[in-house]
Every structure is written in structure tokens, then in C-alpha cells.
Amino acid sequence: MIGTIANIVLDPIFISVLHQGTAGAAIATTIGNVLASIYYLWYFLRKSRSLSVHWKYFTVKEGILTKICASGLPTAIFSALMSVSTIILNQLLVVYGNDPVAAIGIVFKANMFITFLQMGLANGVQPMLGYNYGAGNVKRFRDVESYTKKCCLVTGILATVLYFLLREPIIGLFISDADVIAYGVKMLIAYMLSGPVIGILFVNMNCMQSVGHAFPATVLSVLRQGILLIPLLYVLRALFGLNGVILGQSVTDYIAVALSVFLWRKIRKGLENGQQNI
Predict the structure, then answer these.
(1) What's the pLDDT band for 278 if we cut at 50, 70, 90?
(2) DSSP state of 15
(3) Distance between terminal CA atoms of the chain?
(4) Contact residues for 39 (Cβ-Cβ < 8 A; gap 6+)
């Protein structure tokens, strides 16, 4: 919240008051991140009684480094490939003019509400999943998984319906150009197609990470934002033109969701059959 609030407060100051433009927005974001990092350092060094970043506690023994990297790698790859796929998507869209490029930027921001809301729910329960896996509590692990998926499904459906009903006003909040709004509405609908189910993918990935199967989760991240998405964008553009490009993410999402369900069921079956303790 510190970084977010600082960004909201500083954006108009740097952009409008100091006339820094997009550079001002970047400066505001950087300052927000720095303030958030300072808070974390203060908390770990001064406030927390159970957590510390002191050098005397630093160790890479007992596979600690491997476990940390395995848990965080899918998220890191997801973020990196998101940037790469966005660059490629913009290159494909610019062929159709500047309006589609402007519209897709707005759609990304608007669609984040649907995607990141479910991602937050899925990431938030990962400590509970990991704790119950370590404790061998099968029932509670399954209950947390099931309940979170239901929450993601309901949240995704409600958010998607809301966005569908208010699609034009939502795009209009960002820009007043009629052509950009027309493209934005069309693109937002295309990106919302996977909104109701994308949370299932995030929950399954976190379940895999929590039981020590980080590799399949990493594969799913790579597929969704890179290996599968990027070729699909080119194929769909060749087949359907602009419509194919804007449908690429939703098509990729449904393939990734289906694959995650298959992989997680296979892993969970192996765990429950006693191949590993849970």
C-alpha cells in the first residue's frame, strides 16, 4: 500500500505540476518502490521478532536456496515473459495503426483488475497450502484448494460481467478518442473471455509449488506468457488478422487452464497414493 499510495499521490505532481510527462510517471513509480523497500527493511531490522535479514542468519545449507528459487521462479519468469509478449503484441498491432496500440495499453490496465484480483487470492493462500502439506493435513489442504478455486471462479464471473456491462465507460475513463474507445471495447471483450476461469490456473500453479513441484508451475508460466502465446499470436494473425491477435491471450489462457488441471490432478493423485507424504 505504501508504494501504491505514494505512486498515486506523486503521479499528478510529477506529470502535471512539474511537467515531467511520462518520465514523471516513471519517477513516481520508482520513488514508490523505494519507499516500500525502506519500509520492509525497517520492519525486518527493527519491528519483527521472528523474521530477520541479519547476515548472521544467512545460510544456503539444507537446500534452502534451492527451495526459495523453486518457489519464486515461476512468478519471476511470468513477469519477464509478460514484458516480452507485450512488446511482440505491440509490434503486431502497430501494423494496423496507432489506435490499436493505444487501445491495448488501456485494455491491459483495465483487465489487470480481473486477472490480478484472482492472482492475489491464489497467491495469498500459498502459505496455507504449504503449511498443510508439510503438516500432512490432506483434508485441510484440499479444503483450502477447493474454497480458493470457488472464490476465484465467483470473483472472475462477477468482475467479467461488470466489465462487460460497463465496457465503454471503463475505456472512456482512460481516453476520449472515439476510434481508440471502439478498439478498446472490442479488445476488452476479447480479453475478458478467460476472466471467469483464469484463477483456476493460478491456484493450480500455487498448489504445485506448495507440494514441491515447482517445475510444472514454471512450465505453465512459460507457456502462458511466451512459448505458447507468442506463436499463437502469429498463427491467429495469419488466420484472422486483427481479431486473431486480440484473441490470442484468451485462447492461450484456456489451453493453460486445461493443462494445469490435467497436471495438478496427476500430481495430486500421485501424492494421495502415497508416493509422497501429504
Answers:
(1) very low
(2) I
(3) 35
(4) 2
